[in-house]
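Sharing in case it's useful to others searching the archive later.

Someone asked me privately for the predicted structure of SIR2 family protein, so I'm posting the question and my answer publicly. Question first, with the sequence:
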Amino acid sequence: MTTSFDQIRAGLAAGNVVPFLGADTLADVTHATTGAKIPATSDELILALNNGQPMAPRLMYEFPRAAMNIELKRGRAAVTRALEGIYADRAWSEAALHQWLGKLNLPYIIDLNRDTGLQQAWANRPHTLIVGIARIAGGLRYKLYRHDGTQYGPVTDDSGIDPDAPILFKPCGTPWPEPNWIASDADYVDYITELMGGFAIPPYLKERRKGLRYLVLGARLNRDTIRMLLADFIYGAAQPAGWALIPGANDKEKRFCARIGLEVLDADWRELAGLPVAEAA
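And my answer, the predicted C-alpha cells:
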C-alpha cells in the first residue's frame, strides 16, 4: 500500500494522474444553518428529490431511475429545481478532499458530483470548466467556460479557451455559472451515447488526455451508469490505467477494474490524503 500511495502522490505531483471523484468525497460537507449533510450518494439524492421520503425499491436502486420517475410524474422542471435548490446554496462547508486537492494545483480533475466545492476552491485560479449537457437537438454534449481568475465566461469551441489551462470537468452538472444537469435515465442515455460517440469531450482534451493515469476516489463501481462513464473518460489512458481506492471492493468491482486496467486498493481516500478515516462517519 505504501508503495502504491507513493506512486500515486508522485503522479499527482507530476500532473499525470487525474482524480475521478465520486459521492463519498463529499461525506464531510454539511450545511452551515441546518447542519444537514449535502446530498451526494444515490440514496441521499433520491430522498432530497422526494421530500425526504423513500421511493419504491425498484426506484431506490439508482438515482437516475428515481429522477426519471419524478420527471415523468412532475415534469423535468421538478428535478432541475430541486438540484439547483440543493447545489446553488452557498452555505455548504468545504470538503476536506477539496482542501487537499486545492493545494496540489492539479491540471485536470473529473468530478461526478454536482456541487460547486471545487469551483469555489479554484475561484482565484484561471481554468477551463467543462459541463455535461444532454437532450438537446443535435450538437455537442458539453459546454465550455473560461475562468480568468475572477469569473466565468462562456466560449463556443476549443478556440476560445487556453488549451494548457487546468481543467475541471463536471459531467453530471453544476449550478454555476448556469445550471445544467445530467440526472434522469433519459439524460444519461443521451449523454453516455454521445460520450461513446466522441461528442461529449472537447477535441483538444482527447489529445491532452492520452497516456494519463486515473485515480478513482470516493466512488463505488457496482452500478452500470458510473462504470460506463469511467470507462469512456479514461479512454486512451496509460497501461496500467491507474488506481481505484475502494474499501472492501466486491468481486464485481474488482473484475471491472481489472478489465479497464485499474488497480484496486483496499483503502479509503482519506488515507491517501493523510486525513483521519474516522471523519467518514
